[in-house]
Design goal:
about 10% helix, Endo/exonu/phosph_ase_sf, 3-stranded antiparallel sheet, nuclease, endonuclease activity, 4-stranded mixed sheet, hydrolase, globular
């Protein structure tokens, strides 16, 4: 990477999706390499610590599934979205989705409305799609 800060144009939002397979090491690598370039990080099977939190840097806002804080000990969190602080907080909002494997955000701007869903599909079923 060059020494210049990442410049986001108004008409483009850079989204990166990755399954980190619950790996703390993979999560750290992602955060310290590519995270500064993306506006949205859609992470599947994130690392979750003993407090029910994933890893993030201070310039990233974490969006958990809707009922994550109520159920994190009973339900495995397999989807999170990290929103870069370059996206102003009044331009995006987390969407309530009643499924533990789905996180979603809505971004509103001059371009209109964009909804991004991060859906973890278990290999044994497709319940998250319904």
């Amino acid at each position: 990477m060059s020494g210049k800060p990442y410049e986001r144009t108004q008409d483009r939002i850079k989204v990166m999706q990755l399954n980190v397979n619950k790996s703390d090491l993979c999560m750290h690598d992602l955060l310290h390499s590519a995270a500064s370039e993306a506006d949205i990080l859609a992470i599947q099977e994130p690392y979750i610590d003993f407090l029910g939190r994933t890893r993030a840097l201070r310039h990233l806002h974490v969006v958990y599934p809707t009922r994550h804080r109520d159920q994190w000990e009973q339900v495995t969190t397999r989807s999170v979205i990290l929103v870069n602080s370059r996206l102003l907080t009044d331009s995006w909002t987390a969407l309530d989705v009643e499924h533990p494997d789905v996180t979603a955000v809505q971004i509103v701007g001059e371009f209109g409305t964009l909804r991004i869903f991060n859906i973890y599909n278990d290999c044994n079923n497709d319940d998250a799609i319904n």
